[in-house]
Amino acid sequence: MTKTIDLEKETKKLTEKLLSLLNVEATVVVSEIESKEKEKSISVEIETKDESGLLIGAHGINLNAIQSFLALTLRQKTGEWIMVSVDVGQWRARHEDYLNQLAVQASDRARLTKEPQYLYNLTPAQRRIIHMHLSSENDITTESEGEGENRYLIVKVK
């Protein structure tokens, strides 16, 4: 059953309540993202002076938890899945830039050595960013291997 609510307003209210419970003073900006697939997507930008590290957590783990909490709560309120993206102080954008640089370094090394380059300790989202970044390279291919926590990415010359 789908319930109609103002997604932006509800998401902002939920985020501000969560931050209040954490005793974090922050500014929250919520916007609905246009999607080609007609999926509903929400972007949540949080700006705080002193608590960025707390909200982001090690390797973005707290940020991902906040994102999951908001998505699950909105699912409960609306009856449908809504893609939620949460960022604090542009951390996700900077992290994606880092991953893109890592992808370029691995592909350059693969071209130079003609040997596969292995990238370990990446989350599924991080592997996806690297796959997507290198997908336009005509002479490079990427693949994930392994299972669960031992999954890794291979960058190699075609």
Automatic annotation (TrEMBL):
GO molecular function, one term: RNA binding
SMART domains noted in UniProt: R3H
Domain R3H: 93-158
CDD domains on file: KH-II_Jag, R3H_jag
Gene3D superfamilies (alphabetical): 3.30.300.20, R3H-like domain
Any Pfam family hit: R3H
Protein name, as recorded: R3H domain-containing protein
Organism: Candidatus Woesebacteria bacterium RIFOXYB1_FULL_38_16
